[in-house]
Amino acid sequence: MKQSHDIQQTINITPALMDRINELLGHYPADKRKSALLPILHDVQDAHDNWLSVELMDKVAEIIGIKPIEVYEVVSFYTMFNQRPIGKYMFEFCQTSCCATRGVEDLMDYTCSKLGVGVGQPTPDGMFEVRGVECLGACGYAPMMQLGDTYREHLTKEKIDQIIEDCKAGKVNLYYNAE
Amino acid sequence: MGKQILLDKINVPGIKTYEVYRKEGGYASVEKALKSMTPDEVVNQVKDSQLKGRGGAGFPMGMKWSFIDKKSGKPRHLVCNADESEPGTFKDRYLMEYIPHLLIEGMITASYALEANLSYIYIRGEYMWVFKILEKAIKEAYAAGWLGKNILGTGYDLDLYVHVGGGAYICGEETALIESLEGKRGNPRIKPPFPAISGLWQNPTVVNNVESISAVPWIVMNSGAEYAKIGTEKSTGTKLISASGHIKKPGVYEIELGISVYDFINSDEYCGGMLDDRPLKALVPGGSSVPILPAHLIYKTANGEDRLMSYESMQDGGFASGSMIGSGGFIVYNDTTCIVRNTWNFSRFYHHESCGQCSPCREGTGWLEKVLHRIETGHGREEDIDLLWSIQSKIEGNTICPLGDAAAWPVAAAIRHFRDEFEYHVRFPEKIKNRDHFVHEPFEKVRHLVSKETV
């Protein structure tokens, strides 16, 4: 597998993204800009194919006005920040007790074999990836997975088939719009 | 139907929106508190309610509020803990997703009581769509004049923002949450000082759970004394229970504290009975951290009394024969469940989520996971069971934050109540080769193969 340092990431902080970063910085006192780091990282990652290269983390540090190491240590601590390119459609299956009790292991096996990959291995075209994660807070609606901003619950093999088809057809929006 | 104060309007069409929420009487507690009560009067009502914190620890909310330092003159903050990550728990998400303005109303009224002018809701990153729902609802509340400068012309200012985390169970621990809100790794702080004295940016801070804060509007409108009339003497009010596992109707239910566990599991109003009518084997009543109960201690306590959905009844018997109501993450297991596998699953969770600061937790959770995996996959040794007991006892009480205890307790309780199942795994490895070994042959049918008495 390619390591992140082998891959160039095009950094593009658009004016719209910069406006959003400034809005987030405005949520904290002027001398506490570092507090905005996690929310900013989410938006920056979303705008860059869902991963954060060293160069991109350096850029975030520069915008906030903190040291690069302060960004690296945060990115490496939290599971939602990716330090390498990931599949465009990342199926994150909850594998904790309630989902395990309701058959998530079989579903993960099924999904991996259907996509011809192992857990944590993007498909060669970069479209899909399967990952096992810990409790997502959907225990009553098990088994389930996260796909982008939202959850897919009460999963069955048939539903997985449909979701994969929808992804291939470009019918899946990864970002939730509350408006 | 029990009394409902949080979910009573959840089915009103459009209650998610500001207009409908307001039309249904929403934000009245802000008006009442700001216009006719002093901050301390609000604190006293919450004290009178005897509401215990709904995040899991059950610390009385009014008492927590009374500890906040109002004398130093430093800015104060209220931070809502919406980092719901305890396995089995999904109630806060339900409130925020379907009636977001209730939490915002509670945040304003509670911030006023604490004389805080800058407050935050810290939500776990995976609840990204709920984060967006809350951001929108907060904008609506600003536009309607409930937030910002000089609210309702009373001179009270409040800014409220929602802050999104990055995926880390440990950030549900209040000092780790504060670190994370400061833009750092979620490493819990050594206490004291407690957040009420030195919290967010070293300012006095109160951290409360979503469900606790959402009860504040009702308490302010109806009085703490009225709230205390609901439930039992020691467990006042209502509690959201997230029910999951092998039951007919998983979901979020608001119960009046004090109903029986039997009724909660079996009545059609709540869980609707066991899935496929299979036998009940075990219960985790309050999230993965609390001790698991075996079948004979679920409906009755060790003294033969009815087990109730209350703080005191769940704890009856201590760790020897009781558990805790915790976060209300109520996980029901039937006879197809393998307790060893489930305990391994929980240990993997804690190992993954340990922040790594304290060696007993960082190393111990890894050992627990590895030894349990060895037993579950048929490579266990008889002495592994005592080894597990030894490891868990060395984590408990020896860490900065309660994650260590939370990792130790489920293992201790599983061995205490289901030791014969561990012995079966060690002695009959050929019978547990498939991961669904108890689906086709429940343990009850093979228990006789393990001769030794359960301790």
Automatic annotation (TrEMBL), chain A:
<feature type="binding site">
    <location>
        <position position="94"/>
    </location>
    <ligand>
        <name>[2Fe-2S] cluster</name>
    </ligand>
</feature>
<keyword id="KW-0411">Iron-sulfur</keyword>
<keyword id="KW-0479">Metal-binding</keyword>
<protein>
    <submittedName>
        <fullName>NADH-quinone oxidoreductase subunit E</fullName>
    </submittedName>
</protein>
<keyword id="KW-0408">Iron</keyword>
<dbReference type="GO" id="GO:0003954">
    <property type="term" value="F:NADH dehydrogenase activity"/>
</dbReference>
<dbReference type="GO" id="GO:0051537">
    <property type="term" value="F:2 iron, 2 sulfur cluster binding"/>
</dbReference>
<dbReference type="InterPro" id="IPR002023">
    <property type="entry name" value="NuoE-like"/>
</dbReference>
<dbReference type="InterPro" id="IPR041921">
    <property type="entry name" value="NuoE_N"/>
</dbReference>
<feature type="binding site">
    <location>
        <position position="139"/>
    </location>
    <ligand>
        <name>[2Fe-2S] cluster</name>
    </ligand>
</feature>
<dbReference type="Pfam" id="PF01257">
    <property type="entry name" value="2Fe-2S_thioredx"/>
</dbReference>
<dbReference type="InterPro" id="IPR036249">
    <property type="entry name" value="Thioredoxin-like_sf"/>
</dbReference>
<comment type="similarity">
    <text>Belongs to the complex I 24 kDa subunit family.</text>
</comment>
<keyword id="KW-0001">2Fe-2S</keyword>
<feature type="binding site">
    <location>
        <position position="135"/>
    </location>
    <ligand>
        <name>[2Fe-2S] cluster</name>
    </ligand>
</feature>
<dbReference type="GO" id="GO:0046872">
    <property type="term" value="F:metal ion binding"/>
</dbReference>
<feature type="binding site">
    <location>
        <position position="99"/>
    </location>
    <ligand>
        <name>[2Fe-2S] cluster</name>
    </ligand>
</feature>
<dbReference type="InterPro" id="IPR042128">
    <property type="entry name" value="NuoE_dom"/>
</dbReference>
UniProtKB/TrEMBL annotation, chain B:
<feature type="domain" description="NADH-ubiquinone oxidoreductase 51kDa subunit iron-sulphur binding">
    <location>
        <begin position="340"/>
        <end position="385"/>
    </location>
</feature>
<dbReference type="GO" id="GO:0010181">
    <property type="term" value="F:FMN binding"/>
</dbReference>
<keyword id="KW-0520">NAD</keyword>
<keyword id="KW-0479">Metal-binding</keyword>
<comment type="similarity">
    <text>Belongs to the complex I 51 kDa subunit family.</text>
</comment>
<protein>
    <recommendedName>
        <fullName>NADH-quinone oxidoreductase subunit F</fullName>
        <ecNumber>7.1.1.-</ecNumber>
    </recommendedName>
</protein>
<dbReference type="InterPro" id="IPR037225">
    <property type="entry name" value="Nuo51_FMN-bd_sf"/>
</dbReference>
<keyword id="KW-0288">FMN</keyword>
<comment type="function">
    <text>NDH-1 shuttles electrons from NADH, via FMN and iron-sulfur (Fe-S) centers, to quinones in the respiratory chain.</text>
</comment>
<dbReference type="InterPro" id="IPR011537">
    <property type="entry name" value="NADH-UbQ_OxRdtase_suF"/>
</dbReference>
<keyword id="KW-0874">Quinone</keyword>
<dbReference type="Pfam" id="PF10589">
    <property type="entry name" value="NADH_4Fe-4S"/>
</dbReference>
<keyword id="KW-0285">Flavoprotein</keyword>
<dbReference type="InterPro" id="IPR037207">
    <property type="entry name" value="Nuop51_4Fe4S-bd_sf"/>
</dbReference>
<keyword id="KW-0408">Iron</keyword>
<keyword id="KW-0004">4Fe-4S</keyword>
<keyword id="KW-1278">Translocase</keyword>
<dbReference type="InterPro" id="IPR019575">
    <property type="entry name" value="Nuop51_4Fe4S-bd"/>
</dbReference>
<dbReference type="GO" id="GO:0046872">
    <property type="term" value="F:metal ion binding"/>
</dbReference>
<dbReference type="InterPro" id="IPR011538">
    <property type="entry name" value="Nuo51_FMN-bd"/>
</dbReference>
<dbReference type="GO" id="GO:0051539">
    <property type="term" value="F:4 iron, 4 sulfur cluster binding"/>
</dbReference>
<dbReference type="InterPro" id="IPR001949">
    <property type="entry name" value="NADH-UbQ_OxRdtase_51kDa_CS"/>
</dbReference>
